[in-house]
Write a structure and sequence with these properties.
Elements: H1 4-13, E1 16-22, E2 27-31, E3 39-40, E4 54-60, E5 63-68, E6 73-76, E7 86-87, E8 92-99, H2 102-113, E9 115-118, E10 123-127, H3 129-138, E11 144-145, E12 150-156, E13 159-164, E14 170-175, E15 182-183, E16 188-193, H4 198-211
Antiparallel strand pairs: 1-8, 2-4, 2-7, 3-6, 4-5, 6-8, 9-16, 10-12, 10-15, 11-14, 12-13, 14-16
Helix pairs in contact: 2-4
Amino acid sequence: MLDVSRLLEAIKAAPYEEIVIRAPHTGVVKLADIKEGDKVVGPSGEWKEKPGTLLASIVRERNTRPITSGQKGVISDIRRDLEACFVEAGTPLFTLRHFLSKDEVQQSILRKALYLFVAPERAKYYFTPAVDLKVKVSGSASVTVSEGMELFIMSRMKRETPLYYFGPEGVIYSVYFVHNQNTETGQPLIGVCPQNRIREIEEVVVRVQTEWEEQE
């Protein structure tokens, strides 16, 4: 059985993730007006069309590309020694300390509690028509999966092949793939919860929603 209390305490001890922001390609770095400890924001808008805080720009062959924050958080480890220097792709420029939201904590714990059925290769994935209809009408939790069930259509290189489920019997509690977008090899497609553990999982969700205090 999942020890939710221990997991929550471990996350509370370090309620953030540190993300290294790197140069997206080679070029000359120009840092934005930003200081250690500054708070930054990620993309916003209905379609995330508004970019996050500008952190730097990188110039290559007279083309300037902005480097913006992909998450809300606090900036540290600014590489001021690289100002106006030519850098290779992947060079660390900043560290972003992103404080976890309730939803992120919940998803982190659920990924440990559920059985994750992962993508066997990089491709686009779709539920089979019958499963897709049931998910759209009644939600993913209405679908019970079992060993050998034809669950997905895997689309790659203009070729579609069926993908069969293997793992414990249960309901689809979480859906991780995005319609019409590629899922990388090894990334989860769905999270499955056995019927006899649904109550336990629901208690996890309630505890996170009531006990987790988000930081601004």
